[in-house]
Amino acid sequence: MVVRDAAQLSSRGVEGAPFLVVEVISPDRGHYDRTVKARRYAVRGIPRYWIVDPEARRLECFRLEAGRYAIEATGTGSEVVEVPDLPELTVPLATLWSRVAGTPPSKWRPASSP
Q1: What is the pTM of this model?
Q2: If exposure means fewest CB atoms within 10 Å of the residue's CB, which of 38, 65, 81, 83 is most exposed?
Q3: Ranges of the chain with pLDDT below 50
Q4: What is residue 95's three-state secondary structure?
Q5: 3-state secondary structure of 52
Q6: Is the dihedral of CA 37, 42, 46, 50 positive or negative?
Q7: CA-based angle 37:39:43, to the nearest 5?
């Protein structure tokens, strides 16, 4: 989850819709994340929804348009994903996959900060 406005953060968590939600799907939940969760996020007005599929080594970036998510960028394997509306952001997928290679989903965690 990404929030652009620090005023949305409180002791209770995030207040209001975040700018971006990233779902890391597991093999048995992909359809649910792509349908039910996507509809829920769209209704709540979350502008960006990304789906990371470690098994397929795929990143799909969606943008909310007229109440529905439209694909904005996608990448697989070792590609570098660039999102047109976020030119300052690039996602080198090879780096992402190297962090989860051989690790079961229950053990995935964010990379350590430098």
Answers
A1: 0.77
A2: 65
A3: 105, 108, 110-114
A4: helix
A5: strand
A6: positive
A7: 115
